[in-house]
Design a protein that fits this description.
With about 140 residues, the protein is α+β, with helices and mostly antiparallel strands. Helices cover about 30% and strands about 30% of the residues. A 5-stranded antiparallel β-sheet has the order 6-5-4-3-7.
Length: about 140
């Protein structure tokens, strides 16, 4: 891979860029510029080409913003319950992962991160499948 960034201590530097424009850049714009360079460097650190990253993102059957159903317990001494959650982030570094947020039946906030093979175990696309598995697990308790 032909990198566009280079590690410089704890920071990153764009290596193929004419920096003349930076002298007149406002501080808040420079901070955004630094964030962009850091994000680009993180992608380059994966070792994947852009096309490979795009392919990994598309391989996950779930999409950001999609509603899914999580099977969980508020605490170990309570029954299982199904929580409707929204996917708020996908990551594809070593494995496809996705982060969700929702609320327990008691109103407490819930968030979690799962790998794609959690689907059908404790993550469900359909509410009916989640409720069926929940009933099975609670009947075994």
């Amino acid at each position: 891979m032909d990198r566009l960034t280079k590690h410089w201590g704890d920071n990153y530097v764009a290596t193929k860029l004419n920096y003349d424009f930076l002298w007149e850049m406002p501080k808040e714009d420079f901070e955004h510029f630094e964030a962009i360079i850091k994000k680009l460097a993180k992608y380059e650190d994966t070792g994947f080409e852009p096309e490979e990253i795009e392919k990994l993102h598309k391989s996950c059957v779930l999409e950001v913003g999609q509603d899914i159903y999580i099977l969980t317990q508020y605490s170990s001494h309570r029954d299982y319950e199904v929580i409707k959650c929204r996917i708020n982030r996908k990551t594809v570094k070593r494995r496809n992962t996705f982060s969700v947020s929702g609320h327990y039946a008691n109103g407490s906030y819930y968030n979690g991160t799962f790998v794609e093979n959690s689907i059908g175990r404790n993550v469900f696309i359909s509410e009916e499948d989640a409720n069926r598995k929940c009933s099975e697990l609670n009947a075994k308790r």
